[in-house]
Structures are given as structure tokens and as C-alpha cells.
Amino acid sequence: MENTLSIQETIEKALEEIRPFLNSDGGDITLVEVSDDMTVKVKLHGNCKECSMKLMTMRAGILETLRKSLPNVKDVVEV
Q: Which domain holds residue 54?
């Protein structure tokens, strides 16, 4: 398994891909933690915190973007 630093760096790069879309709606995202089972914990900011489309964004946008770079990502959850 890759070391934690390279996994986090890979996730940060993937989040940079989706960040412009979140920013355009007045939101943002921060990586909080990657658990041992490859669950990615993130914090949503700005309009993303209260958006009615948040669940779809988490699944279809963020999770799929992460899995393009790291197929073994299990899930993405907001903390």
C-alpha cells in the first residue's frame, strides 16, 4: 500500500480538479483525514455546507473524481 503522505497528496490533487466547480457555486472543500479503510473525510465550506445537492456532489462529483486517481477509495464522507 502507498504511504499515507502520497495518498493524501493524490487526494489533494484530485480535489483540486473539482474545486473550481465548488468555488463557482460559492463553496469549497478541505481534506480532513483518510482512514485506514480508505474512507476520505472532508469538510465542506461556504454554500456547499447547506446545498440541497450536497449528497449528489459528494457521490457523483467528489467520490468519482477521487476514484479516478485512487480506485481503492471506499467512500467520501463529510465531517
A: 4-78
Q: Report the CATH number at residue 56.
A: 3.30.300.130
The helix/strand/coil state of 55 is helix
pLDDT at 1: 47
**3-class DSSP state of 76:** strand
Q: Residue 5 has which C-alpha cell? A: 503522505
pLDDT score at 5: 57
Asked whether the beta carbons of 15 and 49 are under 8 A apart, the reply is no
Cβ neighbourhood burial of 22 (10 Å; 0-12, 13-18, 19+): buried
Query: How many domains is the chain built from?
Result: 1
- The amino acid sitting at 12 is E
